[in-house]
Amino acid sequence: MGYINSKDFSHGRADKIGVLLTNLGTPDEASPKALKRYLKQFLSDPRVVEVPRLLWWFILNGVILNIRPRRSAKAYQTVFTEQGSPLLFHTVSQTKAVAAELAAQGYTDVVVDFAMRYGNPSFQSVLERMMQQGVRKLIVLPLYPQYSASTSGSTFDELARDFMQRRWLPDLRFVSHYHDNPGYIAACVERIKAHWQQHGQADKLLFSYHGIPKRYLLNGDPYHCECYKTSRLIAEGLGLAPEQYLTTFQSRFGREEWLKPYTDETLKALPGQGVSSVQVFCPGFSADCLETIEEIGEENKEYFEHAGGKRYEYISALNDRPEHIKALSQLIIDNLQGWQVTADPQRLARAKQLNSQEVQ
Ligand SMILES: C=CC1=C(C)c2cc3[nH]c(cc4nc(cc5[nH]c(cc1n2)c(C)c5CCC(=O)O)C(CCC(=O)O)=C4C)c(C)c3C=C
Ligand SMILES: [Fe+2]
Ligand SMILES: [Fe+2]
């Protein structure tokens, strides 16, 4: 078998550090055809759907891919803009901002790029480009704050699949989670406080996370615990008492039990318990996407109002907010430690000076 060769090997060339941001991925367009292609790749991943392969092949190809693409395309049509899919354009914007922040901090010789686990741009295309640029040390930061085998684990699989074909592998650092990272928590706290400043507080703050089947938790996936810890740390940062916030799980798929409490059922029940205003924030989504804009911003708003709720607000994701970009950049810098970084000394000194001024 032939491996992907690095034809341009030359002695004495400086190694570069690469930073690869990754996210889930999104269909190329909001059409049933593009959805079928995207969902086939996504739902064929054994990390996502842990069901015996042969049985799942028949269910996926015989039933799901004949029904869901049309339904999902309609939902995606409500969130696609002139710039395309929100998940994609927010990731582009985050990548540019992280590259600029790292350069401003003196890390001028770092190659920053992004790839999507499903759809485009693929891991293979982006890794090939990075290797051609001379990247020999690589940090991969999946933009999933909480670890789950179905997301972060699957990201590692795809990376490994690419590496299995390569002759010359880079040094690798993989950030498997950052659910309790102080910068990330501070960015969430700031996001919510900024919303409060404009709109005031509500009776309850809901932290809604994407769900996974309960079976995965019982088999040892730490995702559930990490979500609860993130909620607790954000609530502490906001000075909220336990009865002022809730942690719930959204986006169920299929018939088996998923992590509870379910976001939709909670929102349907809250007005009956005397809660007439809620604000919903989704700490697990580093960028707004179908699951936040349409499912939380629209669908669940209707459930709450239909049940008698008076005021419902979705607090948008961290996206490319400066606090988020600072947190991600710091996470990357922390993971660069010990690697020879060709930082521009003048810029590094200037960044240090600016930082110390901010602290004073
Ligand atoms: C089928 C099982 C699924 C598991 C398990 C799952 C876990 C999971 N997903 C995210 C983040 C996102 N999921 C998104 C969309 C989406 N998710 C599933 C299914 C599972 N997800 C489907 C079928 C879809 C596609 C939309 C649909 O047809 O309903 C997205 C949005 C992508 C976008 O283009 O906007 C995100 C983000 C996490 C974090 C997670 C486990 C922790
Ligand atoms: Fe999902
Ligand atoms: Fe959804």
How does this structure look, described?
Belongs to the ferrochelatase family. Catalyzes the ferrous insertion into protoporphyrin IX. Its main location: cytoplasm. By secondary structure, the protein is of the alpha/beta class. The protein has two domains: 16-26 and 85-177 and 322-359, Rossmann fold; 182-315, Rossmann fold (3-Layer(aba) Sandwich). Helices cover 48% and strands 14% of the residues. It has twelve helices and eight strands. The protein has helices at residues 32-43, 53-77, 86-104, 123-132, 149-163, 182-199, 214-218, 223-238, 263-269, 290-306, 322-336, 345-359, and strands at residues 16-23, 110-116, 135-142, 171-174, 204-210, 245-250, 277-281, 311-315. The strands form two sheets. It has a four-stranded parallel β-sheet with strand order 2-1-3-4, with helices on both faces. Strands 6-5-7-8 form a four-stranded parallel β-sheet, with helices on both faces. Strand 3 (135-142), helix 5 and strand 4 form a beta-alpha-beta unit. Helix 3 crosses helix 11 and helix 6 (182-199) crosses helix 8. The chain is globular, with a radius of gyration of 21 Å. The model has no long low-confidence stretch (mean pLDDT 95). The structure holds ligand L6N33NVT and fe (ii) ion (2 copies). One fe (ii) ion binds at residues 210, 251.
